[in-house]
Amino acid sequence: MQVPFLDLKAQHDPLRAELEAAIREVIDSSAFAGGPFVTRFEEDFGAYCGTPYAIGLGNGTDALWLSLIALGICAGDEVITVPMTFMATAEAISYCGAKPVFVDIDERTYTMDPRLLERAITPRTKAIIPVHLFGQCADMDPILEIARRHGLPVIEDACQAHGAEYKGRKAGSLGVAGCFSFYPGKNLGAFGEAGAVVTANEDLRNKIQMLRDHGQAKKYHHAVIGWNARMDGIQGAVLRIKLKHLTNANEARRGNARLYNQHLAGLVEVTTPAEAEYARHVYHLYVVRVRNRDHILQALANR
Ligand SMILES: Cc1ncc(COP(=O)(O)O)c(C=O)c1O
Predict the structure, then answer these.
(1) pLDDT at residue 74 tops 80
(2) What DSSP letter does each residue of 14-56 carry, written as one string?
(3) Which stretches within 132-232 are classed as H helix?
(4) How far apart are CA 202 and CA 238, in angstroms?
(5) Residues 210-246: pLDDT tens digits?
(6) Ligand 1 atom index nearest CA of 64
(7) To test the ligand 1 pocket, which listed residue (6, 61, 239) has its Cβ within 8 A of the most ligand atoms?
(8) Closest residue CA from atom 8 of ligand 1
(9) Are 75 and 97 in contact (CB under 8 A)?
(10) Mean pLDDT to the nearest integer, 16-43
(11) Phi/psi of residue 156, nearest 5 degrees
(12) How confident is the model over 175-191, as pLDDT tens digits?
């Protein structure tokens, strides 16, 4: 039996009629760049995350980068994050001219270890980016408490954590900004590239809205130097349909994870993922640790 790493066709087949109708609507109205389909998705995704605002963007890297720019991060600043993440987290920091400063992860949850955070803070530190890796939130309360004491904003990298929860609150709604990627393979994936920032901060929302659209507050009135980081209409329409199914899809992932946990429980060689007491893990990836990784990888590939 072939077990593909990711089967998007199986995910989309049951939704095909709905998705095709949504795309047809975008074609019929020619609202391809930004526009009403993006706005409607922003409203729905903000409500889903429990934040007043969502800003649709071109991808998750834009979400991180523009959040940092909007918070005034620039050359000479330091931004604390984790080394155990996808490249884009540190890349967005570097792209602002700032220096990524790495705080190691907790061995159990693979997310920022709050016990190591405070000693990494210097007078140059301007922000903290915990990463909700593999679908599980970092331990946000102690991180937010340290950040508050030092007057530092916390940006959540929630690019792998759509619908994950921390003490009953959704990933993305805990810091000043939550950054999401809707890369096709994500728990909530577009039909191409897309991303978003969610926030309760109106000023930040306004700044990111301007930055994604060449610094325009009004058409052809360019108040600041921005970029083109808008979300496509087709992505907004597709994501709005798929968002309605996210809760069920995440529940199915949790069911699969329980099954794997049961079957792997007897193997001392395998460390299965741990769900922290505070967390609702959404298993973007089900990652195990083994000593002889390459050997096991090869054996699985052979089978
Ligand atoms: C943790 C993390 N941060 C940032 C990103 C960047 O998102 P995108 O690929 O949409 O730019 C990703 C995407 O894989 C990610 O997994």
Answers:
(1) yes
(2) GGHHHHHHHHHHHHHHT--BSSHHHHHHHHHHHHHHT-SEEEE
(3) 140-150, 202-211
(4) 26
(5) 999 999 988 999 999 999 999 999 999 999 999 999 9
(6) 4
(7) 61
(8) 60
(9) yes
(10) 97
(11) -90, 130
(12) 999 999 999 999 999 99
Separation between Cα atoms, residue 167 and residue 18, nearest integer Å: 33
What is the rounded CA–CA span in Å between residue 274 and residue 277? Answer: 9
Does the pLDDT value for residue 4 go beyond 90?
no
- Alpha carbon nearest to ligand 1 atom 4, residue: 88
Residue identifier of the C-alpha nearest atom 12 of ligand 1: 159
Burial (CB < 10 A; 0-12, 13-18, 19+), residue 13, is exposed
Closest CA to 56 of 91, 31, 29, 74: 31
Is the pLDDT at 1 greater than 80? The verdict is no
CA distance 114 to 93: 20
DSSP bridge pairs for 169? 166
Q: What is the mean pLDDT of residues 180-209?
A: 98
- Per-residue confidence (pLDDT) for residue 217, from 0 to 100: 87
Backbone angles phi, psi at 151, to 5 degrees: 65, 35
**Spacing, Cα 139 to ligand 1 middle (Å):** 20
- Which two structure tokens, joined as six digits, stand for 4? 């593909």
CA 4 to chain centre: 23
Residue 303: pLDDT band with limits 50, 70, 90: confident
Pocket of ligand 1, beta carbon within 6 A:
59-61, 85-86, 88-89, 131, 157, 159-160, 181, 183, 195
Q: What CA–CA distance (Å, rounded) separates 23 from 280?
A: 32
Q: Take atom 14 of ligand 1 and give the residue whose Cα is closest.
A: 86
Nearest 5 degrees, angle CA 285-CA 101-CA 170?
Answer: 40
User: What is the rounded CA–CA span in Å between residue 135 and residue 165?
Assistant: 9
